[in-house]
Amino acid sequence: MNTGTGRRVVVVGAGITGLTTAHRLMADRPGLEITVMESAPVAGGRLVTTPFAGLPVDEGADSFLTRVPWATDLCAELGLSDELVSPSARSASLWLDEQLRPIPDGSVLGLPLDPATVQPGLLSEADLERLAGPGIPDRPLPAGDGPAGDLSIGEVIRSCVGPGVLERLVDPLLGGVNAGMADEMSCALMAPQFLRAARSDEGLLATLRAAAAEADPTTPVFAAHPAGMAHLVATLVGRLGERIRTNQRVLTIAADGDTWRIGLDNGTETADAVVVATPAPVAARLVDSACPEAATTLRGIGHASVSLAAIAYRRSDLEVPADQSGFLVPRGSGMLMTACSFAGSKWSHLDDGEHTILRVSAGRIDDDRSSHMDDDTLVASLRRELSTTLGVEADPTAVRVTRWPDSLAQFPVGHRRQMAEVLLALSHDAPGLFVTGSAHNGVGIPACVRSGNDAAAAVSELLG
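Now predict its structure.
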């Protein structure tokens, strides 16, 4: 195997995708010269953990899914597996009908598998009747993995179990987590288990029930690190060492014979391959001159802006259920907030016995009100909504607002095909130039790790 001796790869962007790309190349190609260039003062992108109310509270993602392997495998490789923790509370609620209603136990992405777990009044009798059945679609669903085979999550759920379950349970969960709309989201990318199950002869619900019966109910769905998700970043940074350059802005990328010329704000460098692991709008600008077709597609990807307010109260002023991790707010409520996480109930390492820490999110693809508010106005609005939902009137002891503009890529029907076309165009017009990041396989940590692994594999294949 050619380990890459004498070859150089530049990774643009030191978020979790870029760091994973560099780590994988370093592990698989020990002779390769790797440089990671990051415009910010620190690596990590949106994985940021800072002290809040005396505790390490994340400003972005606070955990990752364990039902897919990529993040858990990376943590194992980095020696972090034994340090990971699972949520203390495994139940959550929805703000529906002006009250907090529990999400039915055993739900899959908001879809209940047993109507007996649904609280009275949450769904109509017609909805419950559909839930009691196998979940056969009311019309044949297109087959195949091609463009015609993709459907929106909304189409699949509506066809198999009706509109009520979609509007009151599935859309609030998936739409809230991804700041999008289930009727617009690619089911093939965002909920492939729904699409596979809906196409089965047994039906969506019957297939999911069979899978649930074989699963270990004690296996946690999420994992986190007690020092915050920035610890994953710090571990990768420690492995990569001086290969990472912060405060290094890349301005241009241009072909120069068989190599690539990288224009910086303080000079020019060359590389045999370049991996652009940045948000899609930045990637579009950087690849535009080399591959306009790819840039046009990347530029067209929609993004939602979100705001995250950490708000701490004295425990004597606000006590939340110890068995609840928080609640989601459907878009039809008219509220600004999309979700409220009970940090101390969810994670034991964030329970100091004195404070109740809330992480309150705002912003959707179709609701940018929070982006136009200053911090004081945003917090005042969220506190009014917390008064409505949780009954808390007391002044908080600490508040922190984090803004993530254009941070959550949206994944409409056909998105996977579009990303495949981007990679194909680059391989044809600009061999040696690669694009990866959260706009490819999803915005969660596992999806970003997967994208980084894929990019590293593509570079290795090119270099031979």
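The chain has three domains: 8-45+227-301+411-463, 101-214, 304-409.
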